[in-house]
Amino acid sequence: MTQSRPPMPTEPPSRQGSGGTGTTALGPDGVTEPRMRFAPDTLRDGPSAEDRSFIGHPGGLPWMLQVEMWERFSWFGMRAILLYFLVDTVANGGLGLSTTAGQVVVSAYGAAVLLMTIPGGIFADRILGPWMSTLVGGSIIMTGHVVLAIPMVATSWAGLILIAVGTGFIKPNLSTVVGGLYDKDDPRRDTGFMYFYMSVNVGSLVAPFIVGALRHAFGYHIGFIAAAIGMALALISFWYGRKKLSAFAYTVPNPLKPGEGKKLLGLAALIAVVATVLVVLFQMLLGELTSAIAWALFLFALGTAAVYFLTMVKSPKVTAEERVHLGAFAPLWVGNVLFVLIFEQAAGKMATFALEHTDRSVLGLFDLTPEAYQSFNPTFVLILAPILGWLFLKRQGRFPSTAQKFAISLVIIGISALMMGYGFSAFPGGAALAPFWFLIAVFFVQTVAELLMNPVGLSVTTKLAPRHFASQTMTLWYLAPAVGMGLTSVVIQLMSGFSDGVYYAVLGGVTLLVSLGMFAIAPWVQSKMDDVETRHDETADEEAVSVEG
């Protein structure tokens, strides 16, 4: 059956057949209608509210949680040892970069990974649909880890490129599949995303311990093999759970019209040329490849985000109400950029602090590995997420609003930067090492800020997304950290002549100033999104009454 209108980004469309690839077609209004692709013969039918087979949530949720858990195990396992791999000597199996160059590469690589969500979102919205795009991405990631495990410099860089491409396909689309488990006004959505976010942290908690231990015992490349195994387990879960999803996961909401494929290929070629020219120009200006790549990625990410946003705002497929929602989304997006500028130093400067500035002996009983410190953030998420989730539920419709949560998050992450500035100044290394608990305390503070930013941001993005740009709006959300991490790589390079203490003090001061501005505009931002938030709250109240009855 053909849809009379495209589905909302979180509203599963009705079945359009028993599966297969489907073909695009123009509706009576001349707009290309959504089509099903690669769907299994059996799918969840009926309203999402009737599916409560997993602790009151849709039956497809636990399988998607496992996918996210193992995919994050794969990513954070690799990430835990990446800086050490980059800066270690070639004789020890590393690549021999300087500490500053390694930190720049880590941040620039994070930006590159997130930039790859652009083709990932386009392929999902226009060619493959969210489910198949996620499957393709996972397969590429697993291949990348296997290639990275080959002990050669060339294969190391090739493996990192493959992982970046694959992650770009998974990040926007797996979140979209989870959102599609719930109908538009299903009040369980926020709780479902909280479970989803917790699954992220289960994988990222275990990965640094396992991959770090393997690295210490057998070398970097065996650690990368463990990451490949984690991705293989994610793919198994994803395939097994495919029949428990709604038709939304297999729907291409805005399929290509005849001739548009060639235009996309031309655009991709143009982007590749522009990126290459930017790198060459900055190489000529700066004389250093890592700096050139950092600047090129940052400017490309910033320009792409601007074009992306303006394209959606001007699209005739976006309604006036949806444009208002995008207006509310913009300052939240900017807040996320600044948050990432500090938060995503865990695998960079904070990893350096763990290795060179910290006494890792725990009360003389045992020593923590430097990689182990990256497990404290997900540990605190698992502890604090249920508490904050309960608090948010109790205060639903009252302070803090969504916009105020973003502002509070910026205050807290700014404080964590000041803590790191103090740490680098007070514990410069050598005989002056920070106690083992200092960096743990910083991770605790950052986790509180994260829980006010990331799960709230994921949920509000699916609410505010224009219906024709579901995956691409999620891509725009992930472009914020791409810009933030690109900016981080540039700032690290620009401030390489300053101490790390000064670096963090400047970031903390700027962030606290911006947070004041975010508090000032929070009422205006909230007013632009009150319609979707109010509908959600009213539905949640009705659901609570029906459950109590």
Please give a structural write-up.
- This protein is mainly alpha-helical and 549 residues long.
- The protein has a single domain (57-247, 273-543), classed as MFS general substrate transporter like domains (Growth Hormone, Chain: A), CATH 1.20.1250.
- It is built from 16 helices and four strands.
- The chain has helices at residues 61-87, 99-115, 117-128, 130-148, 153-179, 189-218, 220-240, 260-286, 289-314, 320-343, 349-356, 376-394, 402-426, 436-464, 470-494, 500-548; strands at residues 35-36, 251-252, 361-362, 366-367.
- The strands form two sheets. Strands 1-2 form a two-stranded antiparallel sheet. Strands 3-4 form a two-stranded antiparallel ribbon.
- A hairpin with a 3-residue loop joins strand 3 (361-362) and strand 4 (366-367).
- 54% of the residues are buried.
Based on the structure given, which CATH architecture is correct? Up-down Bundle
Structure class: mainly alpha
Give the count of structural domains.
Answer: 1
The level 1 CATH classification is Mainly Alpha
For the biggest sheet, the summary is: 2 strands, antiparallel
Cα-atom radius of gyration: 23 Å
Strands ordered across the widest β-sheet: 1-2
Q: How much helix is in the residues?
A: over 70%
Number of strands: 4
Strand content: under 5%
Quick tags:
549 residues; 16 helices; 4 strands; 70% helix
